[in-house]
Amino acid sequence: MKNRLAVSLIAASLLTSGAAFAQSTTATGAASGAAAGGQIGGPVGAAVGGTVGAVVGAGLEIPNAVFSAVPRGEPSITIRERVVVGEPLPETVVLRPVPSYTEYRYAVVNDQRVIVDPRTRRVIRVID
């Protein structure tokens, strides 16, 4: 019972944070992910859902020009792990700056071009 109350309070506070919060896709993704995760997995589900939702939301905010700026034909690195939005890439994967958009990084992994958050190494968007 206490877990449900805590999750409800967290979800409510995330969903009612004001106009700036409503305008941000990242924040909306975090709130939606936390609410959905909380319903399925309790507080841990809310935390995981919020993180993944924020990453997905961040992927939606990337300007379209960034995708076309990522070079094609680069050699691909093969890793055992699946490339999943919201999951970090291994340290062995070299991240390259996106030409003209140096705040973003990209990699070509398992024959997929991906946009990556350089601070966390989490995949923000799979292009191919």
Structure description:
- This protein has 2 domains: 2-60, no CATH class; 64-126, no CATH class.
- Helices cover 48% and strands 16% of the residues.
- It contains 4 helices and 4 strands; from the N terminus they run ααααββββ.
- Helix 1 (2-15) crosses helix 3 (25-60).
- The longest helix has 36 residues, at 25-60.
In N-to-C order, the SSE pattern is HHHHEEEE
**Overall pLDDT metric:** 74
The number of helical elements comes to 4
Number of strands: 4
Topology:
Layout: H1 2-15, H2 19-23, H3 25-60, H4 64-69, E1 96-98, E2 101-109, E3 112-116, E4 123-126
Antiparallel strand pairs: 1-2, 2-3, 3-4
Helix pairs in contact: 1-3
Can I get a quick summary?
The protein is α+β, with helices and mostly antiparallel strands and 128 residues long.
